[in-house]
Amino acid sequence: MSKLTVDEFLALVERSRLVEPERLAHIVAQWKSQRAPGQPGDAQPFAEHLIRSGLLTRWQSQKLFEGRHRGFLLGGYKLLDHLGSGGMSNVYLAEHLLMQRRVAIKVLPQNRVADSSFLARFHFEGQAVAALDHHNIVRAYDLGCEGRIHYLVMEYVEGSNLEDLVERQGPVNFHTAAGFIAQAAAGLEHAHGSGLVHRDIKPANLLVDRHGTVKILDMGLAKFKAEVRPTPAFAQDNEVLGTAEYLAPEQAVDSLSVDHRADLYSLGCTLYFLLTGHPPFQGHSSGELMAAHQQQLPPSLLVERPDAPPSLVAICRKLMAKAPANRYQRARDVADALVGWLESERAAGRFAAAVDVDPQIFSATRDTTANLQETAKIDPSVADSQSAGGSDVIPTPPPPPTPPLVPPPRDTQFAQIPTVAPLATAISAAPHLGRPSLDRPRSLRSSWVSLGRTVKSNSAPTWLWTALLSALVVGAVLLALFAFVD
Fold first, then answer.
1. pLDDT in tens, 18-69
2. Could you confirm whether 200 is annotated as catalytic?
3. What DSSP element (H or E) covers 65?
4. If both were cysteines, with which of 51, 201, 318, 352 could 266 make a disulfide (CB 3.0 to 4.6 Å apart)?
5. What is the pTM of this model?
């Protein structure tokens, strides 16, 4: 901070219009009456006095000390704090000047206004949120512009997103996780019923407030079903919309045509995160993560949570089924399954508190947790070299390598012998072996069969067979001569 005198700082406050002139004059008179004679004219103590009086926030004071006195007022709102930034917007905590209601304002940077695609996506997000009205979805209050500044006014949730909560507190108990996901499913049921698919469900996009209420946010990647409302084609052919750690397999193939069941897969990945503290798959690139979602099964929850209730594990596993047809078909079904499980736990006397969140987490994040995540765009040419944790637009993964061609077995009858069957079953399943000859010991017959297999498997040349047969004939002739001589 720059060293300012009280008079210089006071002049900045007046020009910022953050404090009404009458109240400011009263506070200044009070300050001067309390200041000891000869006290240095440093503005820092005076700024602290304004902060304690509730006339300035610490963020506003910091900006004033940097010499900035413009931009604190936007429309009918006063900016109180900076909550977060991303590729598409900055998010501020604000207060309505007349209603004194706190809100979150997402502001599109001026350098993005000239880009029609960014502006269209920003406006579409506001329209998507405005189409919804549910207590488990962050509400939108206003969408407007002032000069070249475009902004979206939304409900401010005093709390933490689930990603930050788990990072600070660790995995949550089973009942709390089920309650959180059931609430998110209720919000998704409302969104899906309105013809909207979120396409970016993840822990960072689910907020929980002080009362344990979960709210879905960030509709920047949402799409309306074509029969409800046409959706602008924001994505290019080589782009995938979503977040790699929580992306449904079909969404990596075609983000534009997915239906509501893609959100349910992401919700299952979020439940997995709440119970383990990490996403179901981990990788060094977006391509690796998307390939894992398409081709691999996640490690069982029982590996890290061996005490996990089997019914809850089954719900999570069904949510994360690779094929959409094998998942729950409606978000309502997910909510019913989780609420039913919670009721059974309560009836059995095993029900823990619905919310076991440390209150200190909320007090520590009250004015600092960004409750509106950003929709960022990563250049497909460099996306794979970056972590996909915070990206919402990720490149299409390369196709899996084609496995090498394996030549068929030289003897298909041998190849059909089951390797785990008992010996008698294996023999009966190989008709070419037939019954053992009675004129030779069974062990000798088996040894020759084994030798024949070995020779055949090693692809012996014809001359070797000829030499072996000749040696047998010569040996037989010699044995006959010796016997004749004797």
1. 999 999 998 888 887 777 655 557 888 889 989 998 999 999 999 999 989 8
2. yes
3. helix 58-65
4. 201
5. 0.69
